[in-house]
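Students often ask what a holo structure prediction actually looks like on paper. The answer is less mysterious than it sounds. You provide the chain, you provide the ligand, and the output is a string of discrete structure tokens encoding the 3D arrangement of the protein together with guanosine-5'-triphosphate.
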Amino acid sequence: MIENINWYPGHMKKTRELIQQNLKAVDVVVEIIDARIPYSSRNPIIDDLCKGKDRIIVLGKGDLADPTSNKDWLTHFQGYGDEDGNDGIVCAVMMNSMTGEGSKELLKALDKVERKKQDTLKVKQEQSAEKGSALRLRENRPLRIMVVGVPNVGKSSFINRMTGKKSTQVGDRPGVTKGKQWLTLKNGMQLLDTPGILWPKFEDPNVGLYLAFCGSIKDEIIDSADLALELIKVLQERYPDMLMERYKLDELDEDALVNMEAIAQKRGFIMAGKRIDYERTARTVLDEFRAGKIGRITLELP
Ligand SMILES: Nc1nc2c(ncn2[C@@H]2O[C@H](COP(=O)(O)OP(=O)(O)OP(=O)(O)O)[C@@H](O)[C@H]2O)c(=O)[nH]1
Ligand SMILES: [Mg+2]
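The corresponding structure tokens follow.
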């Protein structure tokens, strides 16, 4: 049984400070969330820090998520606005950083921010001309964008896709990016990569669990057999056919442990003395889920 998961090491506290310190220097925040868990991967700290700042929500890893749910989530976020008190959210786009699908929409969204910035600048220029003082040139610089999100959600991959080269280090585990890094796009816009950030306490225990399923929490702090068992519980409920298909199971038991053992049998993860290799079974199920091999799965609906 998994009790409450929490992972808030010192470097995340530092990242929080880093975001805060750099916020003034950027025009817009790109918040990347995981399309498989759009609710759990939205960090309340980011909401808090970025209040009043223009923000674009990018639903990342949409290629791993259920296409129908993707549409529902996009509609949900597009309806975001004053009623939620999140008036800084300009729009939401879906992007696959592996293929670049969705980058046109993203550029369009950035354009919208750029135009808004130009309009504000014009007003300021007019005001300062009236006062007879020249506006400092510094204000008319290319757009600066800060990329934020929970660990392993694809921030650095997003930046690499936008710059068109391997500008930042990417890896299939949380905590790859350690410090901030500025990158410049062909159009002159500047992107700031930041390390992934979580928050001190998950009020809803499912949030920690879902983040762990999707690889946003360091695997070493959780027992993988327990985690996989929880994942199987959710999958047998939400996507039973995909689970059966992937592991060639004729039927599913109500008890997730029985299903996990059946998966082990099918894959031949049996040790000496006919003992089930729970560890290997767990790793396989978690890895295959994260890689989208079980299917395109969304765990949370709007
Ligand atoms: N399928 C798929 N995989 C993605 C996508 N974006 C990123 N990934 C994968 O997700 C993993 C994490 O990517 P990173 O770009 O390192 O994530 P990050 O948010 O920078 O992670 P930290 O720096 O550790 O916080 C890598 O294995 C990427 O290949 C996507 O749109 N689709
Ligand atoms: Mg990174």
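The chain has a mean pLDDT of 92.
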